[in-house]
Amino acid sequence: MIVVDTNIVAYLYIESEFTAKSEALLREDPDWAAPLLWRSEFRNVLAGGLRRNLLTFENALQFAAEAEALLAGNEHEVSSQQVLELVRDSDCSAYDCEFVALAKTLRVPLVTMDAKLLKAFPKQARPFTAV
User: Are 83 and 98 within 8 A, CB to CB?
Assistant: First the structure.
């Protein structure tokens, strides 16, 4: 099992230079987890694609449904105290610290491309590019 940040999920569904790497990561470890926050972040990514005419409404709905099915059963609430402790001890946003908190709680790595997270939490964060 790994915790993945929202961008890794987005790369799986929205074609980019990182899609093949995201697909390879899913084959390597298909047990992905994320904090509940991922849904709102992913919807925001889809909204951006809709507004820039990169996605059709139907595509956005399909990607949302597929991503939700992928993470079904592996979406978790995280402790506010733990998130705020991580915020206190870093320059990272509370949003980003939710992913770190979950990785710490589950005792699994967080796969991310976020340089700030990788620097602040080297024990939890694993670079996507190194996968």
Answer: yes
- Amino acid letter, residue 93: S
Strands (E) across the chain are located at 2-4, 32-35, 75-76, 110-112, 125-127
Mean per-residue pLDDT pooled into runs of 10, the chain (131 residues): 97 95 96 98 98 97 98 98 98 98 98 97 90 52
**Beta-bridge partners for 110:** 3, 125
Q: Which residue has the tokens 């705020």?
A: 84
User: Is this model's pTM higher than 0.70 or not?
Assistant: yes
* Residue carrying structure tokens 């080297």: 122
Closest to 38 in 3D by CA, of 111, 99, 129:
99
Q: CA–CA distance from 91 to each of 4, 5, 30, 66 (Å)? A: 20, 17, 30, 33
